[in-house]
Amino acid sequence: MGNVNRHSGQSSHPTQESQPSGKRHRRTHLTKSVDKLLYLLSQGCMLHKVKGGGLLYPRTFYLDTENMVLKYSGSEKRPISKIREVREGEKDYSKRLDPYDRGRCLAVVFGTNHEVLYLMSETSQMRDDWIKGLRFALHMDQLIKNEC
Q1: Contact 119/130 with Cβ under 8 angstroms?
Q2: In angstroms, rounded to a whole number, what is the distance separating the alpha carbons of residues 29 and 7?
Q3: Which range of residues forms the domain containing residue 121?
Q4: Single pTM value for the model
Q5: What would the DSSP string read from start to end of the chain?
Q6: For residue 17, is it within any domain?
Q7: How many domains are contained in the chain?
Q8: What is the chain's pLDDT, residue by residue, as a tens digit (148 residues)?
Q9: What is the CATH number of the domain that holds 83?
Q10: Angle between the 124-147 and 22-43 helix axes, to the nearest 10 degrees?
Q11: Do the domain assignments include residue 87?
């Protein structure tokens, strides 16, 4: 038999309504955080494309979740569906950079041929934001495809 409150005869198991709003608050907070992050990335951020020899090319990157594309200045667009992986810091090019810069690096792997877009952000926080945002967008894209 379930736990019964001896004084009222009611079950002592909390109902959805009587549960502390902790879980709902965390979920709401998480949703707001993700929405804020996606909005920030949709507004555009300066990232540097890292090319051979450690050459840096500044580009403004945008995450367009409405059209599910990663865009950057120069009219380049990459579909989110083509992203295979988003990596933190990348050893094969970060060793050419100042050790301070390694914490600001990320790599986006595209397609079956594993074409890699190497990027460096202005700050490690910005790098972390892009990693979270791109991974979330990739997850969203996969969920949408699974529903169809």
Answers
A1: yes
A2: 37
A3: 44-147
A4: 0.74
A5: ---B-TTT--B-SPPTTTS-THHHHHHHHHHHHHHHHHHHHHH-EEEEEE-GGG-EEEEEEEEETTTTEEEETTTEEEEGGGEEEEEES-HHHHTTS-HHHHTTEEEEEETTTTEEEEEEESSHHHHHHHHHHHHHHHHHHHHHHHH-
A6: no
A7: 1
A8: 444 444 444 444 444 444 455 566 556 766 788 899 999 999 999 999 988 777 889 999 999 989 999 999 877 899 999 999 999 876 655 556 666 577 898 999 999 999 999 899 999 999 999 999 999 999 999 888 888 7
A9: 2.30.29.30
A10: 100
A11: yes
137 in a domain, yes or no? yes
Is there a domain that residue 8 lies in? no
Specify the length of the chain in residues.
Answer: 148
